[in-house]
């Protein structure tokens, strides 16, 4: 049979490494929430960058189209 290894899962909180097996079930649940929220924040930041880039592109297109419009002079009667 293959060699079994017991890898201890740890998490760093404020510079202190904690063994997940030493945390209470409530603390483990809180860790899961924090990790989930960290992922959601990272995804939201990525999405925000995409949205800002898309907006900048379309604003550039709008500005270019406005600059390209012929200017009409008013004719006095």
Descriptive account of the structure:
This protein has 77 residues and is mainly α. It has one helix spanning 25-68; strands at residues 10-13, 16-19. β1 and β2 form a beta hairpin. It is rod-shaped.
Please outline the helices and strands.
Elements: E1 10-13, E2 16-19, H1 25-68
Antiparallel strand pairs: 1-2
Summarize the structure.
With 77 residues, this protein is mainly alpha-helical. The protein has 1 helix and 2 strands; from the N terminus they run E-E-H. It is rod-shaped, with a radius of gyration of 28 Å.
Class computed from helices, strands and strand pairing: mainly alpha
Shape: rod-shaped
Order of helices and strands: EEH
Largest sheet features: 2 strands, antiparallel
**Amino-to-carboxy terminus distance:** 100 Å
Number of helices: 1
Report the portion of residues in β strands. 5-15%
If you compute it from the alpha carbons, what radius of gyration comes out, rounded to the nearest whole angstrom? 28 Å
Question: Helix amount, in percent?
Answer: 55-70%
The low-confidence parts are: none
What is the topology, as strand order, of the major beta sheet? 1-2
Overall mean pLDDT score? 90
Query: How many E-type strands?
Result: 2
